[in-house]
């Protein structure tokens, strides 16, 4: 099947269908990264804080380096997401 036919079925342009294909192939062929299970915002926050692995993320979570309002783009939802990923109880909105 050609990209023109795919684009017609998807209702988009040929170049957009091609871009989707290239992005999907890149994702399929790259090495997995430890932040892959996380949302983009949380993953970028951890990388910007130079947190290199899940163990360092756990340490930062436990010593409250990661706390809503202390870090730009890290709020209650990110805090709840990392708690779930680390296997910690879900923090409440009152005492995150």
Task: Describe the SSE topology.
Blueprint: H1 3-10, H2 14-29, H3 40-48, H4 54-62, H5 76-86
Q: What labels describe this entry?
A:
96 residues, 5 helices, 55% helix, mainly alpha
Could you describe the 3D structure shown?
- The chain is mostly helical.
- The chain is 55% helix and 0% strand.
- The chain is built from five helices and no strands.
- The chain has helices at 3-10, 14-29, 40-48, 54-62, 76-86.
- The chain is elongated.
- 10% of the residues are buried.
Strand content: under 5%
Structural class determined from secondary elements:
mainly alpha
Instruction: Give the overall average pLDDT.
Output: 89
Largest pleated sheet: none
Rounded Rg: 19 Å
Order of helices and strands: HHHHH
- Assign an overall shape: elongated
Tally of alpha and pi helices = 5
Give me the count of strands. 0
Helix content: 55-70%
Runs in which pLDDT lies below 50 for 5 or more consecutive residues are none
Q: Separation of termini?
A: 51 Å
């Amino acid at each position: 099947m050609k990209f023109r036919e795919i684009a017609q079925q998807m209702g988009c342009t040929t170049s957009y269908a091609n871009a989707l294909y290239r992005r999907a192939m890149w994702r399929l062929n790259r090495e997995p990264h430890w932040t892959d299970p996380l949302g983009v915002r949380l993953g970028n926050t951890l990388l910007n804080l130079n947190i290199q692995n899940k163990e360092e993320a756990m340490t930062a979570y436990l010593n409250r380096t990661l706390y809503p309002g202390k870090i730009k783009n890290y709020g209650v939802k990110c805090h709840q997401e990392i708690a779930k990923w680390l296997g910690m109880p879900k923090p409440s909105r009152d005492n995150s």
